[in-house]
Amino acid sequence: xxxxxTTVPAFFPMPSGDxxxxxxxxxxxxxxxxxxxxxxxxHTVGDGDLAQVDLLIxxxxxxxxxxxxxxxxxxxxxxxxxxxxxxxxxxxxxxxKGHIWPRRPNPTGDVPGAAHATGVDREARWHAEDxxxxxxxxxxxxxARGVVAIRTHLDSLAPQAGISFPVFERLxxxxxxxxxxxxxxxxxxxxxLTEEGRALADTVAAAGARLGCVxxxxxxxxxxxxxxxxVAMTRVFQLATERGLDLDLHVDEASDPxxxxxxxxxxxxxQLGFKGRILCGHCCSLALQPDEAIEATxxxxxxAGVDIVSLxxxxxxxxxRAPGRTPRWRGVTVLHEMKARGLRVAVAGDNCxxxxxxxxxHDMLDTFTQAVKILQLDHPLGDWITSAxxxxxxxxxxxxxxxxxxxxxDADLIVLRARDWSEALSRHQFDRVVLRRGRAxxxxxxxxxxxxxxxxx
Length: 457
Prior knowledge:
The protein is an alpha/beta fold. The protein has 13 helices and 17 strands. Strands 1, 3, 4 and 5 form a four-stranded antiparallel sheet that branches. The protein has a four-stranded antiparallel sheet with strand order 6-15-16-17, with no helix packed on it. A four-stranded parallel sheet has the order 10-11-12-13. Strand 8, helix 3 and strand 9 form a beta-alpha-beta unit. Helix 4 packs parallel to helix 5 and helix 6 runs parallel beside helix 7. It is globular and about 70 Å long. The termini are far apart. The relative contact order is 0.17.
């Protein structure tokens, strides 16, 4: 049987016409969104996790999801049970920091060393062109890996916010239609005790971004929480409310079990009647606290509607690090318990090749693979793939077809040679085929040599 082929290399003969099919594929059942009138008649394998289906693509959208073997062979090849995932979503990154490791490594590998190295590099090197080129490199990489949406944090201590937010707005326009790009500020909590906090909130609002900070002070003790914490966080909530902004916070990224700002953020949100979304990232120290403290925190977060994003690769890298000593814990938060309480939980990539994480490649499939192993999201794997797809898409307020395989949604898909989760999680899927609106894209990764000029001096 013959049908038009694409010229992009692939491990299967990918049709190139506007109307075509991917036949005999396996899709995580939790990500399938058939038409409202359709019965879910497809056969499932792997404890029911994977549905065996044919996908009809028409005009760049998914036109139908049918039981495997339903669509005619003339529309496209049989993929012999290859897995298909939707485009993945990274709701917590730092594109402005990315790829500075060659010029500013972190000699200690811990959070204080990372903060110091980043601060030195930011003050010396983060002009608009530098930020633009490094962030562009990150976006090119993520796009080739099949990421369809990103939220990046932008270092926002003055004067950097005035440099980086215009760069973000330029990138958001340039990447529209390929990657849905959002931003959030990040700054120490101290600035919200000053007028710098108001100025930052205005900058964030003008850029259509999210208001964010680290829930700790630079100049004040943080354990236990000082009285100034409530003053500063109340100011954050007020500034966000006045401007209609959602919040995206870095919370308790520490190995100290006495670091307990998460519960107070949730309590203040309820007390102040905050109506926006709240995303809290990291929340590492919660895993080291006694069960009663964990339970109280989860109850407060559930009441406030707090969403959580865990950054497993970065926090395993940073937390519990000491020279000459094996780390004693994995650095991640209590994600299983959070999900069981009904909180929306996501995993994300965070830092790439910067002082906070020496590694990383903007690849959400790799992030999910490592998250499964670090956080033990297996046996059964269940619907944990939603933590890298549909859940972060919902947290970001994206259309409900993003991060899913949905009838009527864009055919933004990742086709794997792997036939099941064992194969997908055991071997790097370097030969994945990435489809955008049904067409295979070039997945050649940008060469690090593109950044060499920025690393000199």
